[in-house]
Design brief:
CATH class of one domain: Mainly Alpha
Number of helices: 13
Distance between the termini: 23 Å
Largest sheet: none
Order of helices and strands: HHHHHHHHHHHHH
Strand content: under 5%
Number of strands: 0
Structural class: mainly alpha
Helix content: over 70%
CATH topology of one domain: MetI-like fold
CATH architecture of one domain: Orthogonal Bundle
CATH superfamily of one domain: MetI-like
Shape: elongated
Length: 285
Amino acid sequence: MRATWSFLRRLLSSPIAALGALVLVTFLVMALFAPQLAPFEPTAPNLRARLAPPAWAGGPAEHFLGTDHLGRDILSRLIFGSRIALLVGVAGVTLQALLGITLGTLAGYFGGRLDVAISRLIDTLIAIPNTILYLTVLGVFGPSLVGLVLVIGFIGWTTFARVVRAETLSVRNREFVEAARALGQHTPIILMRHVLPSIMAPIIVVATLNVATVIILEAALSFLGFGVQPPTVTWGRMLADGRNYVATAWWLATFPGVFITFLCLSLIFLGDRLRDVLDPRLRGR
């Protein structure tokens, strides 16, 4: 417990990281308690109030951030949209981590032909622009929430694999690993008890930064119509709905863009600070 508090103090000693943590916690609360926090049903239209400006810009008092072209409350849709952004971000990165850590550890620990095969697979996936792969697969199988998470996970694991492979290569011949082999421990036990705990720091940093990347990716795919489909509310879909009203109803596209920016920046700030705290060479900062 004392070590945990010490870690949190070092992590939040940076004002930027503390701000990022505050923003991230705010979005997590929004996502968890969306039905209680949203003032209106996010998918309920009200054509009498369509394209109403924000309350502080002369609009109706009950719509703080205004309404869209169907009269739906922007604030309520933003709150519910945080659920999809965080769900896809966390689930997609979790799947990426499971695949990347597994393949990267095997490649780095065993080497030889297995390492060559996995490395060539990584090189092949990296050579193909990910956006093309995402659009192709989702276009063939159809866009959906589950499909989006699976595609992101099965295509975007290469970053984890490269980092884990490099870290595993650096620890596989260290004394504590050699001692475990000498004691007759089985390879799975060596990997789980000795290798993986030694390389968790870069994995945590990569995972934090990748969540921000996946959130932007989900918004982009939803904007193009290949992401989560209506009536589910997503920030990318809100941006797509607002692009035709930029000149007359700026709030439709502005607020989803602001929310995406704030959430991703909070994760980037935390990821950057985690790198400083977890890297022994930078721990004094």
